[in-house]
Design goal:
CATH architecture: 4-Layer Sandwich
CATH superfamily: Metallo-dependent phosphatases
Strand content: 15-25%
Low-confidence stretches: 1-28
Helix content: 10-25%
Distance between the termini: 29 Å
Mean pLDDT: 91
Structural class: alpha/beta
Largest sheet: 8 strands, mixed
Radius of gyration: 19 Å
Strand order of the largest sheet: 4-3-2-1-12-13-14-15
Number of helices: 9
Number of domains: 1
C-alpha cells in the first residue's frame, strides 16, 4: 500500500460489529490467572492514581485470582522524587499502591519521558531500584530487554520492551533554557536499534510477538503520532509482522488499526495523570479521552485478548487477535 495512503486510512467499524455484550461485562470470566494488567502514565501520586489502583484491586477480587504480572508503560513517577532510591514514593507510589496481595507477579517497566525529565538521572534511579531492593516486584533489567512468556522454552508471546525516549521524540530543547532534554544518547539509540533488528530477525517460537514502549507510533491523542518512531520503528513492525504495539504517553485509552498493517496499536495511558481529550477522530476502532482506567491482556494459544476498563471496571472496548492476525472485536 502507498505509505501516504496508509497513514490516512484505517479500518472503519460500526457499533454492530462490536458484537453482543460489548461494554457490558464487568470483568473477565475466563480461566483465572492467565492474564496481565497494564497501565501507563500513572505516577501522579494523587487521588486519580489511587482510584485506578483501587479499581484494579477490585478487578482482581472479581476475577478470583491475581494476574501473572503488571505492565507499567512509562511515566512511572511525575515531579520530584526527593531521595532518589530512598524516596518514600517508591512505597507510596508503587509497593503499596499496587500491593503484592493483589499483584504478586513481576511488574515489568518501560521508561517514559517524565522518568527522564522530572528528576536528574531519573532513568538511572529507576534502573537501580531493583538492585537496591532485593525481592521487589519492580522489574527493569535494562532500558531495552526481552521477555518470553511463560518461558523461553515454550513461549506464548515474546515481548520486546523498548526505550522510546529517542532524541527526536524526547530530547527536544527546553523552551525556557534552550538545553536539550534528557533522552537516549546517540550511542544508545544505535545499540537499541541493532538489538531490535536482531531480535526481530530471530526464528520465532511464540505464536505472538509484541513491542512495549512508552511513546505511541500512531495516536489520536494530544501528542499525536511520533514522527521519529514512525520513521525508525514502524517499518520494522510491518516487515516482521509484529502483532501488537503497546504504549502509553497520551492520557487516554485507544486501539488503532490500519488497513494492510499487521500491528494493532494499543494505548493505555489513563493510569492517573490528568486525563485529556482526544485530538482527532476518524481513526479507530476505539478511542476514549477524559477517562481514567487500565487494560487487561489475556494470552491463550489461539487468541490474545485486549480489554480497556474505566475506574468503575466497566468494559469500554475489547478485541482479540489470533496468531495469523485475524482480528475480532468484542472479545
Amino acid at each position: 500500500m502507498n505509505r501516504r495512503r496508509f497513514l490516512t486510512e484505517s479500518f472503519c467499524f460500526s457499533a454492530a460489529a462490536l458484537g453482543p455484550g460489548f461494554a457490558s461485562s464487568a470483568f473477565s470470566k475466563e480461566t483465572p490467572g492467565r492474564y496481565f494488567l497494564a497501565l501507563g502514565d500513572f505516577g501522579s501520586d494523587d487521588g486519580n492514581q489511587q482510584a485506578v489502583a483501587r479499581a484494579m484491586k477490585r478487578f482482581v477480587d472479581d476475577v478470583g485470582a491475581p494476574p501473572e504480572g503488571l505492565w507499567l508503560l512509562g511515566d512511572n513517577f511525575y515531579s520530584e522524587m526527593k531521595g532518589g532510591l530512598r524516596s518514600e514514593r517508591w512505597q507510596t507510589g508503587f509497593e503499596e499502591m499496587y500491593p503484592s496481595s493483589h499483584f504478586p507477579g513481576p511488574c515489568r517497566v518501560v521508561l517514559g519521558n517524565h522518568d527522564y525529565h522530572d528528576n536528574r538521572g531519573g532513568d538511572l534511579v529507576q534502573l537501580g531500584y531493583a538492585e537496591s531492593r532485593p525481592g521487589t516486584r519492580w522489574t527493569l533489567p535494562a532500558k531495552w530487554y526481552r521477555v518470553d512468556h511463560p518461558s523461553p522454552e515454550a513461549p506464548l508471546v515474546t515481548f520486546l520492551c523498548l526505550d522510546s525516549n529517542l532524541r527526536s521524540v524526547s530530547g527536544h530543547r527546553d523552551l525556557g533554557t534552550g538545553i536539550a532534554r534528557a533522552s537516549l544518547t546517540g550511542k544508545e539509540e544505535a545499540a537499541q536499534m541493532a538489538w531490535l533488528k536482531a531480535e526481530l530477525a530471530k526464528p520465532r517460537k511464540a505464536p505472538y510477538i509484541a513491542v512495549v514502549a512508552h511513546h505511541p507510533v500512531f495516536s489520536n491523542g494530544t501528542h499525536g503520532d511520533s514522527a521519529g518512531i514512525v520513521k525508525d520503528w514502524e517499518p520494522l513492525l510491518r516487515e516482521h509482522g509484529v502483532h501488537f504495539y503497546f504504549c502509553g504517553h497520551d492520557h487516554d485509552l485507544q486501539h488503532l488499526e490500519f488497513g494492510g498493517h499487521p500491528t494493532s496499536f494499543v494505548i493505555s495511558g489513563a493510569g492517573g495523570a490528568q486525563a485529556r481529550k482526544l485530538k482527532r477522530t476518524g481513526r479507530g476502532p476505539f478511542g476514549r479521552g477524559e477517562v481514567y482506567g487500565f487494560s487487561e491482556w489475556r494470552i491463550e494459544p489461539d487468541r490474545f485478548v485486549v480489554r480497556h476498563y474505566d475506574v468503575e471496571r466497566k468494559l469500554l472496548h475489547s478485541f482479540s487477535k489470533s496468531p495469523d492476525g485475524t482480528l475480532t472485536l468484542g472479545a
